[in-house]
Fold this sequence. Notes:
This protein is mostly helical. The chain has helices spanning 4-31, 40-49, 57-64, 68-80, 102-123, 128-148; strands at residues 55-56, 84-88, 96-100. A 3-stranded antiparallel β-sheet has the order 1-3-2. Strand 2 and strand 3 (96-100) form a beta hairpin. Helix 3 (57-64) packs across helix 4.
Amino acid sequence: MTNRRESESVLNKLLVQLFRDILDIEEKCLQNSEFSDLSVTEIHVIEAISIDKERTMSEVAYDLSITVGTLTTAINKLIKKGYVDRRRIEEDRRVVLITLTEKGKEVYKFHEEFHNDMIKYTIDSFSIEEETVLVSALKKISGFFEEKYHLIK
């Protein structure tokens, strides 16, 4: 059995490597798809908009923990690429609603399928007990980060 310091070192290396690997795999998957004109960041903006509703710019910026100005830059690019539509509401012209176009919905589904496959293949070889322990441990890690760094969920 390893000591606590070794466990911390291994866990740190694993979390950092997993994070990098997932982003790298997402990037390669995108580049080899019909959506190669998108970056991983743009995919995550599309994911935050959601597939089945209009959302305000403020809601999406809040969910992504970015400013509305930063989101506006991303949305302008996504509109030019044909993935997002934007409109102001008549009752209050300050409110800007964004929705996915059909093309945006296609990439949303593509990305959702990528994540579903990744999780399915990850836990397929696990026993129920291993799966339960993994989910419990990851919930604790996530809860720690949310509390320690005041993340909004």
